[in-house]
Amino acid sequence: MSEWFDRAGGILLHPTSLPGPHGIGDLGPAAHRFVDFLADAGLSLWQLLPVGPTGYGDSPYASFSTFAGNPLLVSLERLVEDGSLQASEVEPPGFPADRVDFGRLIPWKLGLLDRAARRFLSTAAGEQRLAFERFCAAEKGWLDDFALFMAVKARFDERARAAGRSGSTAWNAWWDRDIAVRERGALARWSREESEAAAAVKVVQHWFFSQWARLRTHAAEHGIRIVGDVPIFVAPDSADVWAAPRLFRLDRDCRPTVVSGVPPDYFSSTGQLWGNPIYDWHRMAREGFAWWIRRFRSALGVFDAVRVDHFRGFAACWEVPAGESTAMRGRWAPAPGRQLFASVRRALGSVPLIAEDLGVITPDVTAMREEFGFPGMVILQFAFDAREAGGLDELNRFLPHNHREHSVVYTGTHDNDTTAGWYAERTPAERAVVARYLGGEPADVPAAFIRLAMASVARWAVVPMQDVLGLSAGARMNRPATGSGNWAWRAGSEAFGPGQAARMRELAGLYGRTRRITA
Hints:
Distance between the termini: 30 Å
Radius of gyration: 23 Å
Largest sheet: 8 strands, parallel
Number of helices: 19
Shape: globular
Number of strands: 12
């Protein structure tokens, strides 16, 4: 058993869902208090969703860069502390406390960060300036491309608005084709013209990673490991694709010829059309999977372990011809996952990686996961859902008595309803299965499922914060195949109180998931 994968418990909570005064959770004081809550609760894992800069639909899984941090997570309180902002500048214009109003928040916060970053560039000196310059030098491999991408993108978005067009302009639709296809002269010209805007982007990234390092140090001091999330695909409108189009299957106009998705399943009768470009696996293999090695090295420099979303896509991915309106007319296209992970292991050693092995899992996916020793996932809601697992069938791998030690158990994930919301939608037959398994219908279903997870033989047990709080469907984080209205839930300031910590500490101690068992 890998040393990093000891028996432990934790909570799934994205930082945007933390309470705070500025419209969205961030990396500031509330995040540090959540670390304290985890320690008080006898837990040692904090699992997050991807933390990159969000694009389409505000989804953490649609980022402008797989290497960059999300500016929306930069703590304004910390910037006031270090003098980058004045307290009077950060008074929010009446944002709701229980959800993120992305439409109003984004222009307000990004505009504020941009002004503060430009001020930093003109006034910062001494250690502040040196720290920024060290950051730029250390992260040059991705930062220069990302900063220029965002600066150019902002310029074309301004042009679009001036022409009466709404929305963001994807890089392959930029009106100046020379910069879209990265002609050398265009890169030099745009770098000169947008030098200040690009530098401001770099300052905000410096702030993100400085605040992240402070938070991670605080977590380590309290015995808390931060578990990140690496989506298998990258967004089509991203610096990743713009900077390395040769690694993706694009046509002569830089548009994807095929896109990613999943076939019809539990979540959608027409499948899910994600729209991400598919990798040119042959080209990546010829280059020794260098891009993937960089990606995992970067992720493991930020997190203590990572969950890889849609792991089965490394064996074969659902490939849909570009232009389709649903994911129904696709095919399973093979991918060289075994070669890739062998290359990663040669370069980085054994990596602390959790494989999201849900959905249509074939024997080759399981064999690949086991070959590299990656733990998989089990979801308790699926154990009792007739559409997913078929009740008490002896082959139902989600039932607790069928769990394997080398796995991570969840009550639900960010893609599931809350457990209370899920149970409210169950049929009488499904509720009868739950009652039979538990020895009677529980008065508190989320609490009963948390106990099942903590008691499981699975090495890690991770519970969404919504289930700890017993919240209903209104607190759901994401509804797959729904393009808007997701990712907005926020916890109240009372969510992380001593009562919740005591209940989790009792279970963690009882089921051997903590070394910090206290009275």
